[in-house]
Amino acid sequence: MPIITLPDGNNLDFPKKVTGLEIxxxxxxxxxxxxxxxxxxxxxxxxxxxxxxxxxxxxFTAKDPEGLEVIRHDAAHIMAMAVQELYPGTQVTIGxxxxxxxxxxxxxxxxxxxxxxxxxxxxxxxxxxxxxKTRREVWQRDKAIRxxxxxxxxxxAEIIESIPETEELSVYHHGDTWYDLCRxxxxxxxxxxxxxxxxxxxxxxxxxxxSKNEMLQRIYGTSWASQKDLDDYLKRxxxxxxxxxxxxxKEMDLFHFREESPGSVFWHEKGWTLxxxxxxxxxxxxxxxxxxxxxxxEVLDRLLWEKSGHWEKYGENMYTSExxxxxxxxxxxxxxxxxxxxxxxxxxxxxxxxxRITEFGKVHRYEPSGAxxxxxxxxxxxQDDAHIFCSESQITSECLNVTNLILEIYKxxxxxxxxIKYADRPEIRVGEDKVWDKAETSLLEAVKATKLEYSIxxxxxxFYGPKIEFVLRDAIGRDWQCGTLQVDLNLPGxxxxxxxxxxxxxxxxxxxxxxxxGSLERFIGILIEHxxxxxxxxxxxxxxxxxxxxEDFNDYAVSIYxxxxxxxxxxxxxxxxxxxxxxxxxxxxxxxxxxxxxxxxEVDSNSVTIRRLDSNKQENMDINNxxxxxxxxxxxxxx
RNA sequence: GCCCUUGUAGCUCAGCUGGUAGAGCAAUUGAUUUGUAAUCAAUAGGUCCGCGGUUCGAAUCCGUGCGGGGGCACCA
Length: 639
Fold this sequence. Notes:
By secondary structure, this protein is of the alpha+beta class. It has 20 helices and 33 strands. The relative contact order is 0.07. It binds one RNA strand through strand 12, strand 13, helix 8, helix 11 and helix 18.
């Protein structure tokens, strides 16, 4: 005689054991129709699960995240079923729900083609139409292993072997012919998935995510509560593609890549201007924050890298070069050893600390070819790098300074939301555990003091110390890791850095590594996508184009162009033999914030007519007023 | 690095089952002198990514290398 407590606090009394479906029916006919899954005392259960005790129950529909998740999970199963029906001999492995959809990994010799994807989709659709009933069975462990081995599903057998013996093994049947080992829960029948799904792509994926294992074929799909949700999702993907920095970079003539140097950027004038603007902005910020800018060699003797530990720990990612005198040099993958050498030059006292050394250093890292991705993952990039040499007692306050600086900078560039990820000691590392203890405690203390949201990444720290990473969220909700702050109690000692303390004894300084943009290249890629190429006026690489209405006004246009440039606003004048409409379209497409139109009216009144990007409103302005207004907007916080 | 996929003019792309290339835009030249998102015409432009093979004949088929894309792994 279970008494069921509903989320609103009401109780339902049943005379006998009851299923979720019966509870839903009791509440309302429409809920029964929409019900997908339920939770019993907070635990998700199949709707046909028999409840025999008092408990609290919540019914979920497609409107709930829990409901949508089960739809996706079932879609993964139905996809696996369709695949095994169409391609006998294919082995199933795992098929979890992911953000916006699901995937399933299969073991099959022949690759799945796009055409196969269509066929699978059609078959899935048929399975949904058949409305196959779902049935859960609990299997005995040994029997399950033996069974899956017998039918040639060696991956499933391996999965079962890795499940703790205490756990119940459940097998879900969808209809009479197909079943899969699965924790569940699942929908009551296949029609509940609906038709708002789509298979999106095939890719390779290592068994158990380990590159030492064989590669399986992963089919990705997306699935939603309604066709409208699916359409909206596909639309969002399309919008994101329009912002792709590789596409915009070409269209806006910012940079290009080519075969001779994969993963290295050929910056064009406009892209490089943007690059320099960001550096100059950062330079001014850092100057105010007490940093000293330096520059150190890009090529350094192998002996230094051996001493620092990079040769051993990072060697396979380093470019090297042998010179005619048979010495081996490495092209720097990081700036730290160079900065320690700057610190080491001349005797340092505790009065010099904290010493904040910064460099816009270009580093080279031999990244795996498959990792390269436009500006976001390159092999040669410029860091806004800095190393802060300080005493142990200064760690926390210096970390806080860095955090404050980073938040200010992200805000100026249009990113309001920032999250912190804290990463502690990795398995491969240098230094004693005692030292690590100290470093981790100090950094975590600083993280807590920022009062920002943070998560912990176990074992993901740098080989020389724990780190935090700053993650920012862009205009369309994607997260990007940019800045980093690392505490290092190892490298300074390895490279013999020391200072004379108050008491006259020699001490090894603590070093903090930090980068705010991280990689300038990557940050620019993110900026392009964040703004969809429509940069705020102050960082726009080309702020204005002066356009004469006809050739008769070329001289006036040139004179305006000169005045605008003199006022520190970047500009070009378009004297090409095209008409006004053509030029407006041309420069609008290359996302110039302001077009300055000059014709008879403007000549007569010594003015320009402004046309802003994405607006067809015209605004006439006296040229001196224009110069005054817009040269004042040439700094952050101006949109 | 691994799996799949892809590489034709400066750009975007067409070129069916093998018969040595085509469009639009851009460029150049000429005409037009234009008031807010493409004026008209003519001209020029290609080792069809590289190398090897099959074939009477390869942009097309096969092999291989390099680059790009989507994932996986990697991201100190």
